[in-house]
Write a structure and sequence with these properties.
By secondary structure, this protein is mostly helical. The chain contains 2 helices and no strands.
Length: about 50
Amino acid sequence: MLDALADDIDHCPDILRDVPADLVERIRLLTAGVEADLEQPLPPELDDEGMS
C-alpha cells in the first residue's frame, strides 16, 4: 500500500495538498494518549493483504 502511494507521489506530485492546521489539531486531540509500537506487525484482520 505504501509503495503504491510512493509511486503516485513520484508520478503525480501535483496531487499533494497541505493538511489544514485545524485537521492536524483534531487528529492530535483524537490520538492524545494513544501509544503504538510501529515495529509490531499488524494482526491479520488489519493487515493490508488483499486490499489491492
